[in-house]
Backbone:
């Protein structure tokens, strides 16, 4: 009887392993391709934009803190407008993973925002992360969400910098568990 219980317990443990380890490996052939596609979509430049756009599905939905895109045509127009306003945009992927139909990465984006070609542009830098979702068993992207704070970009624009700095100062004074009185924050409340 004891031997039966040990065998049954071992069988039960072995049969549960596929459920506990159901995530597809980051190193599978498909996920290696998805790593390449995800990185290409994030590190897109004005030079390789035509080769990268076809990875988006016809029904792509895209979100960032400012923009919402519904469909391939809107995505294409958005990207061409983005690179028209900041042709030197560079995004460098730092950490990435592709697993279970999803790609996620952290990145740093730099560029120069130009609103008038006769006026020097404003350089900016923002750190962020992206979530990209693929159709099952493909490299077709149907969802992308980029997370970053537009405040990081606005803080580099001279007329907006004081406003962003002021907001960050007040927010820090209000929520920091150890506010900095030497910087002008009021002492912590009760």
Residues:
């Amino acid at each position: 009887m004891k031997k039966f219980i040990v065998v049954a317990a071992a069988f039960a443990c072995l049969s549960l392993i596929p459920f506990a380890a159901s995530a597809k490996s980051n190193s599978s052939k498909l996920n290696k391709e998805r790593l390449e596609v995800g990185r290409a979509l994030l590190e897109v430049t004005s030079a390789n934009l035509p080769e990268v756009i076809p990875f988006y599905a016809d029904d792509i939905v895209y979100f960032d803190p400012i923009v919402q895109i519904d469909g391939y045509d809107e995505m294409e127009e958005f990207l061409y407008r983005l690179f028209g306003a900041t042709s030197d945009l560079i995004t460098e992927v730092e950490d990435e993973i592709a697993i279970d139909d999803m790609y996620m990465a952290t990145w740093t984006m730099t560029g120069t925002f130009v609103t008038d070609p006769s006026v020097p542009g404003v350089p900016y830098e923002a750190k962020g992360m992206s979530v990209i979702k693929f159709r099952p068993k493909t490299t077709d992207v149907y969802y992308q969400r980029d997370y970053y704070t537009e405040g990081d970009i606005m803080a580099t624009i001279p007329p907006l910098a004081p406003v962003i700095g002021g907001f960050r100062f007040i927010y820090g004074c209000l929520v920091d568990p150890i506010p900095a009185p030497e910087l002008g924050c009021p002492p912590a409340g009760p």
In short: The chain has a mean pLDDT of 83. The helical segments are 2-20, 29-42, 49-52, 72-85, 150-154, 161-175.
